[in-house]
Design goal:
5 helices; 0% strand; elongated
Length: 137
């Protein structure tokens, strides 16, 4: 008898014996309980620690802070150039916001909302489905 033929005959028999001993005789339950006991008695739990990578968020925030700082410096330089006496000491840039053209410089061309301020409420469409639609139909 060849080795491969013997293997074909014995493999299903051995698999059935192992399956019976694991499931029917409760061997698997004992193995699992012993493993769990071993972990709970003295071994420290394995804890994986990952470094929190928030560098992109920090870089973005630093970039925004740098832009705000540069904008404030530019406003101060413009006020000095105009002169504080010209407008009675009033800050002419107070409450102004920068233009939204910075997005097109980065290559985000084709944005549907390009040029629309984020604070713009838009059009109120809450009353679009009123009683007049029946008359129009």
């Amino acid at each position: 008898m060849k080795k491969s033929e013997l293997k074909k005959v014995l493999k299903p028999i051995i698999a059935e014996c192992v399956r019976e001993s694991l499931y029917e005789e409760g061997l698997l339950k004992n193995i699992v309980s012993q493993v769990v006991e071993g972990y709970s008695q003295g071994a420290a739990p394995i804890v994986e620690t990952k470094a929190v990578i928030d560098a992109p968020v920090k870089r973005k925030k630093q970039g925004v802070d740098n832009v705000k700082r540069k904008l404030d410096e530019t406003k101060q330089k413009m006020l000095k150039a105009i002169g504080t006496d010209s407008y009675g000491g009033v800050n002419v840039f107070e409450g102004t916001t920068p233009m939204r053209s910075a997005e097109t410089e980065t290559g985000n061309v084709g944005n549907v909302m390009e040029g629309v301020e984020p604070s713009d409420a838009g059009v109120d469409i809450s009353n679009i489905l009123n009683n007049n639609w029946g008359k129009l139909i």
